[in-house]
Amino acid sequence: MSTRGCVGLLVLVTGLVAHAVPKDLDYIVAIVDDDVVLATELVSRMSSVRKQMLAANVAIPPDDVLFNQLLERLIMEQIQLQMGQRAGVRIDDETLTNAVDGIAKQNQMPLEDFKRALERDGMSYGEFRDEVRREMTIQRVQRNRVNNRVYLSDEEIDAFLVSPLGQRTLSDEYRVGHILLAVPTDAEPAAVVQAEQEANSIYEQLKAGADFRQMAIARSSDSRALEGGDLGWRKAGELPSLFAEQVFELNVGQTATPIRSNSGFHIVQLLEKRGAGTEVVEQMLVRHILVKPSEIRSEADAQALIEDIHRRILAGEDFGALARLYSEDPGSALAGGDLGWSEPEKFAPEFADVLRETPVEKLSEPFHTNFGWHVLQVMDRRQHDMSEDARRNLAIRVLHNRRYEEELQEWLKEIRDEAFVEIRVANAAGKPPSAVKPKAP
Q1: Element spanning 281, H or E
Q2: β-pair type (259-261, 172-182)
Q3: Structural domain total, the chain
Q4: What tens-digit pLDDT sequence spans the chain (441 residues)?
Q5: Same-domain pairing of 88 and 186
Q6: What gap in Å lies between CA 423 and CA 24, rounded to an integer?
Q7: Is the pTM of this model over 0.70?
Q8: Are 97 and 128 contained in the same domain?
Q9: Could you list the residue range(s) of the whole structural domain that residue 146 is in?
Q10: What is the rounded CA–CA span in Å between residue 50 and residue 30?
């Protein structure tokens, strides 16, 4: 992710055409359960999105479209943040700092340079941390709630492994654009017909060459509308099952006919396609030692201990013996730190990066992840044909990810329907506020 792209998602600045929201920046735009959305939040978010679109040379949609999209996004964020607060979800400072450091590394910047880049884009480092904490809280709430809704039977997994879709999971990757025209569950037949006509109209315009990104920004109700409806690169098995088969039949640039679901009408376009590789994966035979900070061991003490262990290994002491003595990873300590043959992708990103960079039979420098301080040693590398167990585990991950995406959209719709939301201000086009929707009993 580029610096501009990363900051564009999170930077909040000021400035907006005067008629888009009330001039009183403390005005309550919407009441959401036990909290509110303020005009300051909406103004800031609109300014941020405009800046992002200008930087990407994307035409900015009309004020009323942008107003509605962002107000709804803020309402959904507020609902989820309140759920997290009630459930005791908390992103501690260490986890947050590691996440922010990771963003700086993704942008290939030292942290101080990254802070200066944020300031040039109009955001303080503290504000950036607050936004990252907010996003991480929402993601954790989603995982906690939605994972419990996903169930996979052995029969489903077996069927997937022998299906054409399962066999193609490792072959190709797809970048898909998605537009959703939402239709309420209790919509009148006339409203459904109108939505279908609109979906067909969008489909015809896209066939005639209309820009998908612009169309998604202006018309889609999906949570990725302001990203142009781009679902990103996904393997075949990671595409939502609702439209996976249609995507396989498309050529790049083609659009599938509108698809009806409980959520509304979906329009998908195949933006790009690429080969994903073979069934052979690179594996490393690795062992590690983990030292964690605790109530009686500070972060500095943990770092000092791992550095001492590192020096002792280089001086000739046995890695396995030191792992059994000091390592706080219960899954590997008794085995002398041995993690067996592993793919880097199964580990935390920081661990995976060090694993890839460490030569065979060499010892890494001490490094930090969310779990604590590590030192690792790569004993060997190989190109390995995936075993049946590995294939089954992959099938479980793929099916879980597909089901998760579907359940996430259903869950978001449910919590929106159940929330008490009162919109206090008309949008930029002068449309009246939405009616109050009481929380379901």
Answers
A1: strand 280-291
A2: unpaired
A3: 3
A4: 333 333 332 222 233 333 334 444 468 889 999 999 998 888 888 888 888 888 888 888 888 888 889 999 999 999 999 999 999 999 999 999 999 998 988 888 899 999 998 888 778 899 899 999 999 999 999 999 999 898 899 999 989 888 887 776 656 788 999 999 999 888 899 989 999 999 999 999 999 999 999 999 999 988 888 989 999 988 777 888 888 888 988 988 999 999 999 889 999 999 998 764 445 678 899 999 999 998 889 999 999 999 999 999 999 999 999 999 999 998 899 999 999 998 888 888 899 999 999 999 999 999 999 889 999 999 999 877 655 666 788 788 889 988 898 899 999 999 999 999 999 875 433 343 443 343 443
A5: no
A6: 16
A7: no
A8: yes
A9: 3-150
A10: 22
Residue 412 within a domain: no
CATH of the domain at 221: 3.10.50.40
Domain boundary pick from 220, 247, 278: 278
The token pair at 295 is 């109530």
Do 141 and 53 share a structural domain? yes
* Cβ within 8 Å of residue 291, ≥6 positions away: 302, 305, 306, 309, 326, 327, 328, 372, 373, 374
**Beta carbons of 332 and 288 less than 8 angstroms apart:** yes
| Same-domain status, 355 and 267 | no
Round to whole Å and give the CA distance between 198 and 204. Answer: 10
Same domain, 115 and 37: yes
Instruction: Tell me how many helices (H) and strands (E) the chain has.
Output: 15, 11
Angle at 406 between CA 233 and CA 410, to 5 degrees: 135
Structural domain contains residue 215: yes
Q: 175 and 245, same structural domain?
A: yes
Tokens of 100: 């922010």
Same domain, 137 and 60: yes
How is the beta sheet containing 367-369 ordered, strand by strand?
Answer: 338-342, 280-291, 372-385, 367-369
176: CB partners within 8 A, 6+ apart: 230, 231, 234, 239, 243, 247, 268, 269, 270, 271
Give the list of residues 6+ apart from residue 158 with CB closer than 8 angstroms, or none. none
Let me know if residue 420 belongs to a domain. no
CA torsion through residues 130, 134, 139, 140, sign: positive
